[in-house]
Amino acid sequence: MSTDNLELLDKIQYPEDLRQLPVEQLPELCAELRQDIVKELSVNPGHLASSLGVVELTVAMHYTLNTPYDRIVWDVGHQAYGHKILTGRKDQFYTNRKLGGIRPFPSPKESEYDTFTCGHASNSISVALGMAVAAHKNNEPDRHVVAVIGDGAMSGGLAFEGLNNVSSSPNDLLIILNDNDMSIDRAVGGMEKYLLNLDTNATYNRLRDRASKWLHSKGYLNDDRRKGLIRLNNAIKSALAHQQNIFEGMNIRYFGPFDGNDVVELVRILNQLKDMRGPKLLHLHTVKGKGYKPAEEAATIWHAPGKFDPDTGERLTGDTSQQPLRYQDVFGRTLVELAKQNPKIVGVTPAMPTGCSLDIMMHEMPDRAFDVGIAEGHAVTFSAGMAKDGLLPFCNIYSAFAQRAYDNIVHDAAILNLPLVLCFDRAGLVGEDGATHHGVLDIAALRPVPNLTLCSPMDECELRRMMYTAQLPDKGTVVIRYPRGRGVRRDDWQCALEEIPVGKGRCIREGDDVAVLSYGPIGNDVEKAIEQLKAEGCTTSVAHYDMRFCKPLDEELLQNIAAKFKRIITIEDAQRTGGFGSAVLEWMSDNDKPVKVVRMGIPDRFIEHGTVPELHHIAGIDVEAIKAEITKG
Description:
This protein folds into 3 domains: 7-201 and 243-303, Thiamin diphosphate (ThDP)-binding fold, Pyr/PP domains (Rossmann fold, 3-Layer(aba) Sandwich), CATH 3.40.50; 327-481, Rossmann fold (3-Layer(aba) Sandwich); 506-632, Rossmann fold, CATH 3.40.50.920. 40% of the residues lie in helices and 15% in strands. The chain has 26 helices and 17 strands. The longest helix is centred in the middle third of the chain and has 19 residues, at 223-241. One of its GO terms (biological process) is terpenoid biosynthetic process. It catalyses: D-glyceraldehyde 3-phosphate + pyruvate + H(+) = 1-deoxy-D-xylulose 5-phosphate + CO2.
């Protein structure tokens, strides 16, 4: 793939430059923009296929709208690389996702063209509706507000809550549904094409708007009657087209589906729709990975492919055969192993079967594994329903995404203490995806919830044992958190499945001067720090305890530690406020233990993007920080 000829793109720094082009040149600009994205991501990995799929839509929106005055609210921000390049960040795009570089997802902190935070999914309609209502209240009728939702985000419950509210407040919101997975069936036939042309015909809509205003001025068309006419119009369209859709049932005018990869047609459609009064939805079919054959043929793999050769499509993956397995793969393989022994076990994930390795179970036991879409709250409550009637679900959710299921965990799982295992993948600082994806709030959020057992493995064998323990009888609702990335055991990860007594920690090494209490895999960094101090000649005698459980705490072990040590260090890859260290500190206070407790964890601020080692250093929980804290005493 040649990346030398970018004559049009090189002239564009901001959307006002884009708007100087004749519409006939937009297809060529789209080709250049797509070329630039492929070139940059081949050496600086990121989310490829989704951004390629919306190149034409991105260009068409900035061409027809007066951004940044007009608002584009992105949903699932990994679609927005083209948007970044066209809005003043082209020359910095090579720093995307790097420490100190541009953010991985749109953020108002970075650019006035980024209207809202969009690292997670399904919030765009609610946010955009709020902005559209604000424009109405602020007497800004010329401000256009557009929500771009897709890449599975329409399956999230918040999207439907927003849709349900769209027709209840005066607004001119335009919702663009980027349907890249045929989630809504395509309608075909001559009548359907006729209706598409009619709906977006300028004369038709001008006459319709004039008639509406005349009826309103004569007092014949109040708000209730207007909604009634919209319902009647939608009913007639549904009868003629032999189809019905949920949007028109909510009094939202529906247009589509159209080809979302035809930029000239998109410009025509957006010019017709943008000034139309009232809420409306434009349904577009796009091809994920459009314009780059390898990504079109395997969109899941090329969602975030890592480094690759842009000319051949060869992914440049190193030899990992001698490296430890990823924690997610240990989870996936162990779950199948347990499920073969326990017929009650089922697996659940909200749209991340490959990311959490539930795809292993889906392949071997397709009738016992469920992908429920981007719907974390539903995933938990669905699991709770199965648990209530005799099954034993392992519900795997990325830690940061589990924040959206907090009420479901409390109300639908914990209150009944159901036999349910919540596996929080990507716990801790996750790296280049940044603040929206770091899984650092789960311990502090869940520790006050009654009936929950909270645990975290120091290595792969401990993960297997915790999973085995959680599925034994009478364990209630168990939360197991583990990080993104690889473990520490290269050959012996597949240990025997043995029960761990709930609430029991273990002593990793004895010591006399200071005790370090770790929670989870960061205990391996504690071991590295202690070994390095010994090699450097440090005479401080350090004890190390892997506590395993944050709730319940091992009180017997804490009694022994408090009796022996006057200084204790706790460490966790999670928010320091309210976390594991706070639990230890509270226990010491409640039991009148005169022990100094130093808590190491994520400080009270959002940590931005970078590699995990870089972020551990910034947060003060890397090996050097541990060594420094140990030697302070």
